[in-house]
Amino acid sequence: MPNRTPQAQRVFLVVVDESPELKIALRFACNRARHVGGRVAMLYVTEPAEGGEWMGVGELMREERRQAAETKLAELSSVVHEMSGETPMLYVREGDAREALLALLDEEPAISILVLGAGTGRGGPGPLITELAGKYAGQLRVPLTIVPGSLTDDDIDAIS
User: Fold this and answer.
1) N or C: which end of the chain has fewer CB atoms below 10 A?
2) Helices 55-84 and 21-36: crossing angle, nearest 10°?
3) Is residue 5, in this structure, part of any structural domain at all?
4) Would you say 144 and 111 are in contact if contact means Cβ atoms under 8 Å apart?
5) Quick one: pLDDT at residue 57?
6) Nearby residues of 120 by Cβ (< 8 Å), 6 or more positions away
7) Partners of 100 in the beta sheet?
8) pLDDT value of residue 104
């Protein structure tokens, strides 16, 4: 029998925002991580602070946005730990969501799957999914899992 090395732990990355689809993507990622002995990672991207001649104001805005991101991630961390059994990896970045996400994927080889929840409204699945499944699909080094926003908790539990 050949020697087998242990498989690297799968890390499921979820982008945190204020959309209702976040709950769906997070539940799916937590379920998958729990079933495969993996882990969840969360990325929160803040808008860049504007400064110009008021650099002090810009710096204050940047700090407030970072604090809000850290608060949101702390709240979600307990949910992720409860659902997956593991403490999540947390990332906060500033800038454009797509650019920050692609940069993180390049920097963190441990991340193995990107999980995003699709919107169900008239706006389509969401700008990040539209960009990543279209023009930027070739730049992803990991599979993209799109979880339909219309799924219920029971639906997600049954498939993940």
Assistant:
1) N
2) 50
3) no
4) no
5) 75
6) 21, 148, 149, 150
7) none
8) 97
Total number of domains in the chain:
1
Residue with tokens 């090395």: 5
How many other CB atoms are found less than 10 A from the CB of residue 31? 20
pTM of the model: 0.89
CATH number for the domain including 88? 3.40.50.620
Inside any domain, residue 47: yes
Residue 43 lies in a domain: yes
Distance CA 144, CA 153 (A): 20
* CA 123 to mean position of chain CA atoms: 20
Q: Are 21 and 121 in contact (CB under 8 A)?
A: no
Give the range of the structural domain holding residue 64, as residue numbers without chain letter.
11-159
CA atoms within 13 A on the CB side of 98: 14
The answer to whether residue 117 is domain-embedded is yes
Averaged pLDDT in 10-residue chunks for the chain of 160 residues = 55 95 97 96 90 69 91 96 96 95 96 96 91 92 96 96
Q: Which two tokens stand for residue 134?
A: 């279209």
